[in-house]
Amino acid sequence: MRKIRIGIVGYGNLGRGVELSIRQNPDIELVGIFTRRNPESINTINGVPIYMIDSAINMKDAIDVMILCGGSATDLIEQSPAFAASFNIVDSFDTHARIPEHFANVNKQAQRAGTVAIISAGWDPGLFSINRLYASAVLPVGNDYTFWGTGISQGHSDAIRRIEGVVDAKQYTIPVDETVAKVRAGKNFSNTAREKHTRECFVVAAESADLERIQSEIVNMPNYFSDYDTTVNFITKEELVSKHSGMPHGGFVLRNGTTGANAENNYIYEFSLKLDSNPEFTASILVAYARAAYKLSREGIKGAKTVLEIAPAYLSARPIQELIGELL
Questions:
Q1: Which residues of the chain have pLDDT under 50?
Q2: Strand 28-35 vs strand 4-9: parallel, antiparallel, or unpaired?
Q3: Neighbouring-strand partners of residue 256
Q4: What is the DSSP letter of 214?
Q5: Residue 255 CB neighbour total at 10 angstroms
Q6: Whole-angstrom Cα distance, residue 65 to residue 5?
């Protein structure tokens, strides 16, 4: 059987992570990388061909699945519907409040073109979403809690970098320890986003930039920072490189639930991740879902899909009989 042929759109941290992940999956091959930058300015890990993004349509018959590696703030909201009109795609759109809108826009194009478009595949949304579903289905009486960090958020960092006058930035999401302790103690309570996390930003600004304006745009940015206590630290490029060059992240999903005639039995469901490299782990998830997109397309499925609708076996290169024999 021939390998699944992949194209990468965008070659930042996530795109490089996808390239690395493909090397670990012998049933998948990378055909090309598509970028808005000058292809001659980019050095890839494997020496794969690099093309201008506008030329992607010319390779429609050479690529089984396009993995879109742009940012959610401005890239994927436009690129995912556009590419779904010609290719099977996978994206990692992670602006939670806009996922229903994004799904509808992508689904319209994918249904019309007969393609498969898996959106919001990552670890949250993604693996965390699946575990929230599992936990609430098994423990229908209870409450869900999701905590992220301590770690760097690619999407939030990218959103800061889009602000005029920002040269570079990293944003850390930090769980509030007191709230985490209450949940792990089995206490069910309602809490706001502000009570669960804080956000800390390290920003390199241009020499003549208006720092007060940048800070105001960050802390008041809807869907990203306005609902949280946010600290903005302006630092030098050298400090950012020396102290914040890594990309760690992680977090955990918890559900406190009860069973029994009088809710006398208590349960805590927890799924957690600790990641050395957020982009490389997210990229590995995208590659697995690219395999799923290819399988679904081969079955004649079309339209937008989410991780909640796709059976786990579709992610694996191993045959179902082998999975049943070893994993059940």
A1: none
A2: parallel
A3: 143, 268
A4: H
A5: 23
A6: 7
